[in-house]
Amino acid sequence: QGINSGCNVGEDVTYSGTIAAAMEGLIRRIPSIAISQNYEAGKKNQISWESSKTYLKDLLEDLRIYGWGKNVFININFPY
């Protein structure tokens, strides 16, 4: 649970624990979402969570209402 610090795009998805957890949920037929908050280069200890704080609640509500395919997990990456 929770938001991953850093983004999960490109090659990162091949070794991401966040993505792996969402994939395991999918395998078990549990609707799954991997959520990540990117940060400015060199500032991992100073992450600004404003993007995810501002948009995540409404985005999750939309996904709850509209749903997604049973063979799909969602990967959300917020910019810094």
Question: Can you offer a commentary on this structure?
Answer:
- The chain has helices at 17-27, 50-66, and strands spanning 4-5, 33-37, 74-78.
- It has 80 residues and is an alpha/beta fold.
- It has a three-stranded parallel sheet with strand order 1-2-3.
Kindly report how far apart the N and C termini lie. 20 Å
Report Rg: 13 Å
Order of strands across the main sheet:
1-2-3
Mean pLDDT: 93
H and E order: EHEHE
Please report the number of helical segments.
Answer: 2
The counted number of beta strands is: 3
Largest sheet: 3 strands, parallel
Strand share of the residues?
15-25%
What labels describe this entry?
single chain; 80 residues; alpha/beta; three-stranded parallel beta sheet; flat
List strands and helices in order, with pairings:
Blueprint: E1 4-5, H1 17-27, E2 33-37, H2 50-66, E3 74-78
Parallel strand pairs: 1-2, 2-3
